[in-house]
Design brief:
single chain; 408 residues; alpha/beta; Aspartate Aminotransferase, domain 2; Aspartate Aminotransferase, domain 1; five-stranded mixed beta sheet
Length: 408
C-alpha cells in the first residue's frame, strides 16, 4: 500500500521525506528494501496479464522493482519531472538516454566541455553506430546555432561544466532548438548544479541526467544514475532500452539513495555556503592565480549564473602558481582535504583534472577548455569552513618553496 500521494502544497524538504513511499503489509516506518530478483504470481492468468501489460505489478527487477520505483518517484518530485528512471551509474544514464533518443543517421550537437566519459560517448561511441557529433564551445550560442543540421536530434551539455565550471545558457540553447531543430531534444547533465540549484526542465530542457553517485548519495557509498523526462518519452523510448540492455540499479543502492534524498537539501545548502567562503578565501591567496566559482561576481558568466542558478554550488576550481609542480605541491600538503576524483561527498575532495578525469584529452583540447596543469578541482564537503580554509591555506603556503626546490 502506498502513501506517497501528491503534496504540491508542501515544501520540497517535506516531500523528500514523505513522497514516494510504498509500504508493505507490515507498515514499516523506514522504506522497505525489496532485495529480490523476481516476483510471484497468484495464478497463471495473473502472470499472463502482467506480461501483457494489462495488469499492474512487477515482473522482474531488471524491468522494475518497488524500492527502485520509490527512488524514481522521489527523484521526479525533486526535479519537477513527470517521470524518472534509475540506472546503475551516471554513465549508464547518459548512454541509455542517448541510445533511446538517437538512431543511425542522426546528429548530435554537444558542448566540448564534458566529463571524459560523456565526451567518449558522443565523440567515439555513438559514431560507431552511425550517429554524427559536432562539438562546440558551450559558452557560445552562435556556435550551437551554426552547428545545427537538418538531422540534428539532440543537444547535449553539462552546466556548470567539469572541471572548469563554465556555464551553458540552457534557455538560449532551448530557443535555438525551437527555431532551428524543432523536435530535437535538449539533454542536460545537471550533476554539478544539483537539482536544488538549477532546474533545466524549467529552462526548456527535455531530459535531465544525474550521476546519483555524487550529491544524491552524498556520502561516497554507492553508484547510481537517473534519467528524468516526460512520461510519454520515457515509456515510448527509454523503457525498452533499459529493459533490453539491462543497466538496472540494484535495490540496495536504490534504498541507500532513497534515504539520502531525505537529507539532500540540508547537505547541499551547507556545502554551498562553505564553498562560497572557500572560494573567497582562495581568491586572496598569493599562490592562486585564478578562482572559478559560479557564485562569485568575477565568474566570466556571472550574469548567466544569476539567471539560471539559485546558488553557486559545491564545486570550486582554482589554478595554483607553478603549473603541475605547484598544484601537486599544494595537493600533497593537504591534511584534511582528501585526494579523490569523486565529488559531492560529505568529505572535501580534491583532484588534478589534467592527470586524472581529463587525462585522455589531447593537449589542444585541454588548452581550449582551460584545463591547465595548475588547475585543481575542489568538491567542498560538510566540514567547518574555517577548518577547510586553514588546511588549504597552509598547503598553498608551501607551494613556492616546493616549486623552487624542484627547479634548482
Amino acid at each position: 500500500m502506498g502513501d506517497g500521494g501528491e503534496r504540491r502544497d508542501q515544501a520540497l524538504q517535506t516531500r523528500l521525506i514523505h513522497d514516494g513511499v510504498t509500504r508493505s503489509q507490515f507498515g514499516e516506518t523506514c522504506e522497505a528494501l525489496y532485495l529480490t530478483q523476481g516476483f510471484v504470481y497468484a495464478s497463471a492468468e495473473e502472470a499472463e496479464a502482467r506480461f501483457a501489460g494489462v495488469s499492474e505489478g512487477y515482473v522482474y527487477s531488471r524491468y522494475g522493482n518497488p524500492t527502485v520505483a520509490m527512488f524514481e518517484q522521489r527523484m521526479a518530485t525533486l526535479e519537477g519531472a513527470e517521470a524518472a528512471r534509475a540506472t546503475a551509474s551516471g554513465m549508464a544514464a547518459v548512454t541509455a538516454a542517448m541510445l533511446a533518443a538517437l538512431k543511425a543517421g542522426d546528429h548530435v550537437v554537444a558542448s566540448a566541455a564534458l566529463f571524459g566519459g560523456c565526451r567518449y560517448v558522443v565523440e567515439t561511441f555513438l559514431p560507431r553506430f552511425g550517429v554524427e557529433t559536432t562539438l562546440v564551445d558551450g559558452t557560445d550560442l552562435a556556435a550551437f546555432e551554426a552547428a545545427v543540421r537538418p538531422n540534428t536530434r539532440v543537444f547535449f551539455m553539462e552546466s556548470p561544466t567539469n572541471p572548469t565550471l563554465t556555464l551553458v545558457d540552457l534557455e538560449g540553447v532551448a530557443k535555438i532548438r525551437d527555431a532551428k531543430a524543432p523536435g530535437a531534444l535538449v539533454v542536460v547533465d545537471n550533476v554539478f548544479a544539483t537539482p536544488l540549484w538549477q532546474k533545466p526542465l524549467e529552462l526548456g530542457a527535455d531530459i535531465v541526467i544525474y550521476s546519483a553517485t555524487k550529491h544524491i548519495d552524498g556520502q561516497g557509498r554507492c553508484l547510481g544514475g537517473v534519467i528524468l523526462s516526460a512520461e510519454a518519452w520515457i515509456k515510448d523510448n527509454l523503457d525498452m532500452i533499459l529493459k533490453q540492455t539491462g543497466p538496472a540499479l540494484s535495490p540496495f543502492n536504490a534504498w541507500t539513495l532513497l534515504k539520502a534524498l531525505e537529507t539532500l537539501p540540508l547537505r547541499v545548502r551547507a556545502q554551498t555556503e562553505t564553498a562560497a567562503a572557500v572560494a573567497d578565501a582562495l581568491a586572496t591567496h598569493p599562490n592562486v592565480t585564478r578562482v572559478i566559482y559560479p557564485g562569485r561576481d568575477d565568474h566570466p558568466q556571472a550574469e548567466i549564473a544569476r539567471r539560471q542558478m539559485k546558488k553557486g554550488g559545491t564545486l570550486v576550481a582554482f589554478t595554483v602558481a607553478g603549473g603541475k609542480a605547484g598544484a601537486f605541491a599544494a595537493a600533497n600538503a593537504l591534511r584534511l582535504v582528501k585526494l579523490s576524483n569523486n565529488l559531492g561527498d560529505a568529505k572535501s575532495l580534491l583532484t588534478h583534472p589534467a592527470t586524472t578525469t581529463h587525462k585522455n584529452l589531447a593537449q589542444e583540447a585541454k588548452d581550449q577548455l582551460g584545463i591547465d596543469d595548475g588547475l585543481l578541482r575542489l568538491s567542498v564537503g560538510l566540514e567547518e569552513a574555517d577548518d577547510l580554509i586553514a588546511d588549504l591555506t597552509q598547503a598553498l603556503d608551501q607551494v613556492k618553496a616546493a616549486t623552487h626546490l624542484r627547479s634548482v
